[in-house]
Amino acid sequence: MLFALGQDVRLLRTGGDAARFLAAAPGRVVAVGDRAEVDFRQAATTLAVSPQEIASVTGFNIPAAAGSPCCCTV
Predict the structure, then answer these.
(1) CB 49 within 8 A of CB 21
(2) What residue spans of 1-74 are helical by DSSP H?
(3) I need a surface site. Which of 17, 31, 38, 61 has the fewest CB within 10 A?
(4) Helix crossing, 15-24 with 37-46: angle to 10°?
């Protein structure tokens, strides 16, 4: 996804960081990996953010051993 989106991308460490990023300004978009989704949804609820799922992208995490499957929700 990074290659497709270009240089104007911020890498956030946790699902909570992604929820805070959304809460900071209207019109923002985040992609949350499946491992961070529970943290993201809990933080979004706490922050009263109601994210709308646009799409899910399934693929392989290349740096991981043997390209482990992953899913990102946008």
Answers:
(1) no
(2) 2-5, 15-24, 37-46
(3) 38
(4) 40
